[in-house]
Amino acid sequence: MTKDIATPTRTKEILKKYGFTFKKSLGQNFLIDTNILNRIVDHAELTDETGAIEIGPGIGALTEQLAKRAKKVLAFEIDQRLLPILADTLSPYPHAKVIHQDVLKANLKETLAQEFEGIEDLMVVANLPYYVTTPILMKLLEEQIPVRGIVVMLQKEVADRIAAKPGTKDYGSLSIAIQYYTEAETVMVVPKTVFNPQPNVDSAVIRLIRRNEPAVKVENEAFFFKVVRASFGQRRKTILNNLVNNLPNGKANKAAIEQALSEASVDPKRRGETLSIEEFGKLSDELGKSFA
Ligand code: SAM
Q: Where does the Ribosomal RNA adenine methylase transferase N-terminal domain lie (predicted)?
């Protein structure tokens, strides 16, 4: 029986056979630990009815483990050099399909509707390329693709910011952007030694479970995110100063900002990092009366 792809010896053999050299610029750090991979896949709670979406299959280490449990796997890979390798390593898994595309340029809604016709339960599971972690996550969430959730490996520092709670140093506009759409939790911290080559930063796995409704109902979603970003402009400044300095026409409308803070029961001396998503929602609706 062939060994799993994600073992140090098999990975080495595959890389050697194809003369493959890693491209740092594409975030190529491949997993070489089947145990870690299985734990990642466990967190996704796949069944034989699930469609799995992977971003960046590499030489197929995670794809193989997904294929063993899911009904179908669809993987987006940007690096053309990996296509013949994947055709070889994934040949025992005909229900795993690789699309040669930059996931950031993909029409996900259309592709998923075509590829997963008749499959209701969809999960994204990936070991993300770290240079584009946030744009990928924001694309998946903002385009509202019909997935149950997302289980991904990323930089620990980014995982900490995504799952942070109000009042902590890591809490910021990224925490709110992700928690607006999902319930976020760090489920594993992963040592560098399970990758080839080893990345420079620590890694973690987060699980994002999509909410049926956003965490807070707001009048104007785009303006809500503008208020959140403005509030975290300079972390050491009060929310009042940040809104005055960072909202368009904020300086000319200081009185209206003070009024909105008062209506939303937010002390103008507080810092953005202490406000819950619900408080930001209320504040954005009040500010929207004079700004949006
Ligand atoms: N899944 C494999 C594993 O765990 O061993 C490889 C993960 S490696 C961290 C990231 C992969 O994403 C690489 O194969 C890289 O070529 C691919 N990649 C980088 N940028 C991409 C993009 N914009 N769209 C699709 N794939 C991308």
A: 36-212
How large is the ipTM? 0.99
Predicted structure pTM score: 0.96
Whichever domain contains 165, its CATH number is 3.40.50.150
Q: Decide which of 191, 210, 229 is a domain's last residue.
A: 210
Asked whether the beta carbons of 10 and 32 are under 8 A apart, the reply is no
C-alpha torsion angle, residues 266, 268, 269, 271 (rounded to 10): 60
Q: Do 39 and 172 fall within a single domain?
A: yes
Tokens of 291: 């700004």
- Looking at every residue in the chain, the average pLDDT score rounds to 97
Determine if residue 102 is labeled as part of a ligand binding site: yes
Query: Which pLDDT score is estimated for 166?
Result: 97
The boundaries of the domain holding residue 170 are 8-210
Q: Is residue 216 included in any domain, yes or no?
A: no
Mutate to test the pocket of ligand 1, among 18, 40, 77 (most ligand atoms within 8 A of CB): 77
Q: Give residue 186 CA to ligand 1 midpoint distance, Å.
A: 21
Contact 111, 119 (CB under 8 A): no
pLDDT at 94 over 90: yes
